[in-house]
Every structure is written in C-alpha cells, then in structure tokens.
Amino acid sequence: MAETSQKALQQQILIDDSNIPDWLLTEILQRLPVKHIFKFKCVSKRWFLLISDPFFARLYSTRINTSLSTSQPWNLLFRYLYEVRIVPSSMIDTRIALKQSQDFSSPGFSLNFLPYSKHDSPIKILASSNGLLLCCETFYWQKNYYICNPLIQQWIALPKPPKAIKSVAVGFICKDDHYEVIRFPTANYGPSSTLRLETFSSETGKWHCSIVNCPVMDYYIKTDSPVVHYNGSLHWLEFRHSKIITYDPHNGTNTRLHLMNLPDDRQSEHLSLLGVSRGRFRYFEVTDTCFGPRDLRVWVLSDNDAQRWCLEYRIKFSGSWIDEVNEFIPKDNFYIFPLALHPHEFDIVYLGYGGCLVSYNLGTRKLDVVHRNFYSHQLLAFVFSPWPTTIPQPFW
Hints:
Helix content is 16%, strand content 34%. By secondary structure, the protein is an alpha+beta fold. The strands form six sheets. The protein has a four-stranded antiparallel β-sheet, with no helix packed on it. The protein has a four-stranded antiparallel β-sheet with strand order 6-7-8-9, with no helix packed on it. The longest helix has 14 residues, at 2-15. The chain contains seven helices and 22 strands.
C-alpha cells in the first residue's frame, strides 16, 4: 500500500507545475530540442498555450541564432534519385554541420512518413521554401503533390492539378502561413506565345488556371537546376535561348513570363545552375568539355533592374586541383559538374567530380571529399527555419 502511494506521489510531482511561474517554465522549455517541443504541447493546456504563443517562437529563434556560430542549419538533399537519400550531416563541413544543433544531431532524416505508393519509385523533392519541402510521387505526369516539414514530420496532400501535363516547371513559395505552388509546361514547340499557368493557393484551397504570355515561343526549361525564389520572383534556367525565365506570382497585373539575361561571357550551356548565397543571386557554371583546360566560374547579380552580372571567380582546374586530385581520383576520370552553392558561405561550392561529391573553397582553393560513389546531378540546399514552419490544416 505504501509503495502504491509512493508511485502515485511521484506521478503527481512529475506533472504538477503549478508552483512554477510562467517565465521560469518558458526558460526551461526554451532549452529543449525543437523536435520535442511540439510533442510537449500535449502535456497540458498550459504548456500548449505557452509554446503556441508567437512570443515563444521569437524567443526560441533568437536563442538558436545567437548560440550557433554560423547561420541557420542546413543540409544537402538529393532530388530525383530512385531512392530518397540525404547527405549525412557528419559528411558536411563541420562549420555548418547540422550536428551543431541538438535538434539535428542525427546523421540524416527520412521522408518515409509521406504516404506515397510503395509500388512506385520513392518520393521526388521538387523545391523548398521557408523550411518546407514540395514533393511529388513522380517526375513525369505529376499529379500527387505533398508539402511537408521533415523536421516535425508534418505533411498535407494537395488537390490534384486540373490538367495532366507530361513535364512541368514547378515553383514553390511559402511565407508565414500561406504557400503557393506554380507550374507550367517545361517546353513549348507550338506557334503560340501563350501558355497555361496553374497556381495552387493555400488561401483558396484550389488550383487557378490562367493564360500568360511568354516572350519566346520555343522555350525549354532546364529542370535539373532547382527553381530559385529571389526578389519576390521565381527563376528557372531556360536552355534553348540561354536565358532565365522569371515570374512574379504576387503582381496582380502580371499576365506574362519575363526573360532575364545570363552573363554575357558565360561558356557552358549544360553544366550550370542558379542559386542564392547569403541573399545574393548567383550563376554557377563549369565549362562543358571533358578534355583540355576547364574553368569554374561564379557570377553575382550586382544590379537586378539592369540585369548586370559581376564575375566573382574564375578558376582553372588544371592549375588549382592537381595536388588534391592525385589523392583520391584517377587522372583519367576527370568529369566535373556543378551541384550546389553554399547558402551561407560565398566561397564554397559543391561539385560532382570523378564519382565523388566534393566541396571546393574558391578562396583557399581547398577541395574536400564529402561523399564517395556519387553520381547524381540533382542536389538541393535545404535551409531549416529557426522555428519550424507549421502547415495549416487543409480545409479542402
């Protein structure tokens, strides 16, 4: 009887926080891993109200940003592989490894919580925005879209688009509690300069179709380069005319796509991508020859209105990599392609090189192997939000 009473007393002590003032309980909760905080909302009504308060989220975000020696944690995600694989954080440069934060101390995370068909190839990662991922079951004939937060494993399925299209260019924008998905055909071979653009808005819960004008009739979107959200617009690399196609979904009078110039002195038509580093819009290319001297070049957009590009780096591989190459890659295996820009460091880029994923410091000319036996051309730099973005529950 005494033993039973002791257990009951222990349980009561564990759950009784009535003598703890709100400020002290908030200080305690602020020091917990964010992936556990969302679970602790269920402990009591008091805990739910404290954690749900926007003031708590602001405090938590401030503490995380202050405690980290660098900017927000991030990781590299594989986009279109037959298996969903993520580069373990232990293989990324220690200055930006996710293990800096106890919330991301595991070697990686999985998307297995998404309800895709087990008989089809695993989920495809299409885009990211504000700590959320846009995914789809297939690369071609996309119809089943999911938006998820991989940190707290929250997800929703979107209604199916109104029209089946074999290949689409997809953009994703999330701001506060509102998100949009924009898609249109990746190519146009017909005589018309108009195309059908489909937009899903979380505010309406529906797909909206509109006819927009395109400056070129025979465009072709480079789908192996992730769509980039910069300066309020979405940006896709266009292959046939060597341009950037842009679209501003928040311009109510905008009924057309726009073209943006690439750097005049670019050379590569295939091995290139767009990205954003520390808020700067950049273009990254490797000259596309397998023999002879090759260059790695990075430009930054210095004037958005005038579409003026400034060449930041131009590095010849043959002169800068000879010592590092001999350590791990045969000389006859010298195929190089750009994969990603570091979201927080101007000097660091990621390349596919001789069957390896490597990071390369443009300033120090130092090359490091991140992952061996690597043959993917599809990477996405995914930046975690300091406070996880929650997905509003669907009403459709």
